[in-house]
Amino acid sequence: MMRCLLFCCCLCSPHFSAAQNAYRRVAIPEQAYFAEPFDAGALDRNWVVSKAVKDEQLLKYDGEWAIEESRERRLLGNRGLVLKSPGKHHAISAYLRKTFHFSDRPLFLQYEVFFPETVDCGGAYIKLLSHTDDLRLSGFSDATPYSIMFGPDKCGSSHKIHFIVRHRDPVSGTYLEKHAPQPELDLSEYFTDQRPHLYSLNVYPDHRFEILVDLTLIHKGSLLEDMLSSRAEDQEDSSSAGSEPFTLSSVSALGFELWSLTADVMFDNIFLSDRVEEAQRWTQDTWGQRKSPGVIEKLLMATLKRPWLWGVYVVTVGLPIILFISFMWPDKRFGPPDQDYYYKKTDEPQKERRQDTEELLSRAEGPAAAAAAESRAVRRARSTHSSGSAP
């Protein structure tokens, strides 16, 4: 029976991809600073493609962006923001609903990245843009001030998850960039398994931070004790500050400013909040939809669009079960051992039962008793005849 079930699963496996969960549109939390599931069929007007130029004429960011349905088929109908042009620079951004201040609030940032092809070289990190009076999204570039940069990046054999903060030194007044050490584990799977992954960053008012991938904690530390300076001059400024507590600049927008040799990189379900319950609910409503169904559920789901599979199930699974039951139905060979009809097949001689012995004796004595009775009748006849003929 198990072989039949495995055969049925193999037979139906080409149809499983088309029998996965249908994507459910996500409700936008009212209190979130930013929530973007990309459910619209086109690029929302809130997203601004950079028009920054180089050499005073040419666009610096000439890569194309699009909203497309995911090539990963576990969620039918799911859409995301796609980086389309290999080997070009891309930049796109959007304003938050309201400015985020780091003073006494935690930050919960998360988004999904999907590399449908093997990544040669390219980044997929997100930037939280600092609030300034002259911030214009149409001019978003690598020179635009940011407070946090976070997300995956790969080039050659180097696989990274960046977490970089940019803050003002409380002593010198200059802005410093510090980055977290890379996690001590192999990150290559996130770039090569051709599956979406959820990247989450939590920053707390006491300067603790946590980095998670697919809800698994891969790194944690302190902004004051575990961050490394990017440049030697930054290291000197940082030491002069004693590592004193610092405050990150407020954030009023977020965006992607990337260069990649790999095309069709998809971003989805971007979320920013200061409420952990809200972040958990968003995770459940978005990433939670990717829960893989079990084998039995897959078999049933496959019949929705292919009713003829019921015939396959009956032949490969149902028929063997029926035959097994019919052959094993209790009879005089198979039954409770305390009943008279119980019989266990064995090569050893079986002990004769008393009832069977008496029956055999009765059958054996039958002819002998009849012969004896006939003999007695003959003798009586001869005796009577002899008596009657005497003088």
TrEMBL record:
TM region positions: 308-329
Alphabetical list of InterPro entries matching this protein: Calret/calnex, Calret/calnex_CS, ConA-like_dom_sf
Gene Ontology BP annotations: ERAD pathway; protein folding
Intrachain disulfide bonds: 121-155
Signal peptide: 1-19
Keyword annotations of the record: Chaperone, Disulfide bond, Endoplasmic reticulum, Membrane, Signal, Transmembrane, Transmembrane helix
Low complexity biased stretches: 363-375
Keyword Transit peptide part of the UniProt annotation: no
Subcellular location: Endoplasmic reticulum
Segments of this protein annotated with the region Disordered: 340-391
A cellular-component GO term for this protein: endoplasmic reticulum membrane
Basic and acidic residues composition bias: residue spans: 340-362
Single Gene Ontology MF annotation: calcium ion binding
Record family assignment: Belongs to the calreticulin family.
PANTHER family: CALNEXIN-LIKE, CALRETICULIN AND CALNEXIN
Annotated protein name in UniProt: Calnexin
Organism (species): Carassius auratus
